[in-house]
Amino acid sequence: xxxxxxxxxxxxxxxxxxxxxxxxxxxxxxxxxxxxxxxxxxxxxxxxxxxxxxxxxxxxxxxxxxxxxxxxxxxxxxxxxxxxxxxxxxxxxxxxxxxxxxxxxxxxxxxxxxxxxxxxxxxxxxxxxxxxxxxxxxxxxxxxxxxxxx
Length: 150
Description:
Elements: E1 2-4, E2 10-15, E3 21-22, H1 25-53, H2 60-87, H3 93-113, H4 117-139, E4 142-143
Parallel strand pairs: 3-4
Antiparallel strand pairs: 1-2
């Protein structure tokens, strides 16, 4: 989109976007890294679940242990989102998304412990998609260093 004057002609500033610049490059990097790790954890969980469903009963213990590791990483993801939000009060979507993922993660663990397999697998697939969406959006955040000069 071009910045236009009142007569509709492009201004001398050149091309600008409507995306707001996020303050705190290190905090954005922290959110990106933790979200990417959490996303990889969902893939590991899916692999271990697939092994279990394929008859490898020995994969149940690593699947259970990795679930708690995933919960810890998601908690760190929420912390990163809170820190980013405290620096940029207008940027609420990472905090809302990470809290939602955390709630679904606890629900996922509960469903697994209750052996509700159909709901557990379905929510696991959904969590993988949610984490992927979070990673993609986190990598689209523009920081001061990556913003286009005006």
